[in-house]
Structure formats: structure tokens, C-alpha cells
Amino acid sequence: MIAGIKAPDSTIARQAEQYAREYSSDVLFNHVMRCYFFGELFARKRGVKVDHELMFVSAVLHDLGFTEAGKGPHRFEVEGAHAARKFLLDQGVQEDRAWQVWHNIALHVGDLNLFKDEPTRVMQQGILYDLTALPPDLALDPNNVAEVLHHYPRLGFKKGFLEIFTAELDSKKPYPHRFHLCSCIEHHRSHALNIPKPEDFLGSAPFAD
User: What pLDDT is stored for residue 178 in this prediction?
Assistant: First the structure.
């Protein structure tokens, strides 16, 4: 029990956590676990009913694309979604449920998950809370946050996560990701589009490291 939240104890939840633990560094594993608990805290704060198992599996497997389990030529969130779906199907999870997890993971980079159903939105907010500054109305109880950090410390996450991204970019040249067409047009048309430095994006998170 962490901050009044108990992670699901189903067979597939335990298997997913073990799989993420096996392939992830300490920095990455602690990140995905924090994301789950932060998402649950947002769900509790907003009174949103969630499928706890689906949210847990989606959260703990969402960065497999940075690991050996999700190696491949495509960008990391797509490779991670493929790896998670294959893992779930291999464990006997139903096809439609495995696809739900695929969508949650493949769309977690950017803002698309924030426009989906409420359970997906709070899961995405949990991920974003660990990464960057969020509006004041999305603040969480500091005592609950501290309890999550006690169990899953950040271990220099801001620097460590940037290094993980750098290694991902170095492994795939040219990187297989395209800017949104509207972003490209606005950048070349007005040169006013703000593209933040990664150090500023990650550095804005409300944590020391």
C-alpha cells in the first residue's frame, strides 16, 4: 500500500511488473512505477473510475521501447507498444485488451491520450507529472508524492532520462519521427513556434532531480 493505493495483484500485473523489472534500468523502472501511482492519485483526486489492471500494465510497460525488449527500427513508443502487446498475447491476454495497452503506449508521447477517455487521461497525467511541470490544478498532495518517491526514488531521473533518450537517438539515424505537419508549417512560416530544450522540459518537473 503506497499513499493509500494498492497495485493490482493479478497474475498479469505481477508478470508485467517482473517483465519491466527484468529489462529496465533502476532509473527507468522506478519511473514507470511512479507513473502508475501518480496516475492512480489523479484518478482518486478527480473521482475517476479506472480499470486498475489495465492502467497498471499500460504504465509499467510504457517505456519498453527504451529496452532490449523493445528494440527495433521504429521510434521507441511504437516499438514499446509492439513489445507490450506481444508480451500480453504470449501470456494469454485477450486481443482487444492487448490492443488497448498498445494504444495507451503508442500514443503516450505527445498529447493524444489527454483527449481520450478519463482513465486514459489520468494515466497520461501520471506520466506527465513525473516528467515536467503541470498546471496548478493538477497538483497532488505533497505527502502522497513523498510516499511514492520513498518507494521509487528518482535516482537522478532528469539527467538519467535525458541520457536514455540520447542513446535512443544515437541508435537510430536518421531518427524515424516526423514533426506534425502544422508544426512544420508554423515553424517555417513564422519562426515563432517554441520548441523547448529537453533540459528545460525535464528540468521543469517539481522534483530536485
Answer: 83
Distance (Å, whole) CA 34 – CA 39? 8
40-56 per-position pLDDT tens digit: 999 999 999 999 999 99
Provide the residue ranges of all domains of the chain, joining segments of one domain with +: 11-203
May I ask the CATH architecture of the domain 11-203? Answer: Orthogonal Bundle (1.10)
CA distances from 13 to 51, 95, 185 (A): 12, 16, 43
